[in-house]
Amino acid sequence: MALINFDFPTASARPVLAARPLAAATRASLKLHGSKPARLQLLDTHYHSPRTDEPHNGLPRDLYRPAVPITSTAASQIIPILYSQRKQRKPRPAIVPATICTPQDGNLAPEIHFPVQTVFAPDRPPYSRFVNRFDSREMLLVIDGSCINNGRSISQDEAPTGGCSFMYKNSSSSSTSYNTVAGGDPITFLFLNNKKTGPTSRPTGSVAFRLEDHGPTGHFAEHTSNRAKLRAVIAALQFRPWAGEGWRRVVILTDLSYIVYGATAWLPRWVARRWRKPRRSPRSEDGRPGSRFYANRDLWEELQRRIEELRGNGCEVSFWLVPGAGYDDVDGTGVGSSHIKQAKAAARMAARPMPEVQVVEFTRLCGIML
Predict the structure, then answer these.
(1) What is the pTM of this model?
(2) Going by fewer Cβ within 10 Å, which terminus of the chain is more open, N or C?
């Protein structure tokens, strides 16, 4: 004869003899030793005690369920049922990451490898893009982001502000924008409401905007430089239906390894670990223990959705990592990029405090400009 004892700390469980233990099997610890008495003891954060004759935590004695004697054969049939009703984790779908761009000529700078070319299409006027000189079905998107008071390094009381920017073609000299970068190229600032210039500036090939306070899931997230650049990638891929334009591959140009390796190598491991860091994860830059979870999960999942959407339409997304804006070598002997410098300047301008700019909710960009 085996003995299985179900103990519950509340009176609401008393009328149910078998259904409640089966539903609570996910928190059960079962010990069965041959013909010895077996006890199914429910583990709870507020109640963890075998059945006794004395009150526990101020609860009356009659709230405890008496032992239910059953045979060992019946116990061997009940035990598999208890374990089979435990909540099973559904396997996560396999993540197919983006690819790393391998230039056909590694000695060419991005400006020379992807020069500005005019594209002719039967259903629209001619438009310009950064097109691969070795493959006319590949185009280039330049992204960058910036954050003032990143990590609250300047002031602990002032909230950091981030700005994002991306380029998909050269800026027309005839376009008029709210501001220009040092090189004189105009920028389109989204979400701008200024009495002098109107609701927004005219369309150009460089787009900049303030990083939103809320992510795609609607939750608040503090601005960081990594988050601003990641948001810029999402905005660039969502801005136009690149697959609809006929591009076989879209190359993202950036100087941040966090973006490149995250999208091409780390993301499947993060998803497999359910976004939990290892126990012995390194500390943050200021020496304090970091979060238990990887940062920017909402943006990474939004980026992966867009990558898979483009892949489903026959357009692959690749990432090209180049040195930062401080590395100037655009004469064909290195891989520096003046595009990165221009995008970084636009992102810094978008991150500056502007009373007329207040972006809270995450906005999915959809550009109608050519």
Answers:
(1) 0.70
(2) N
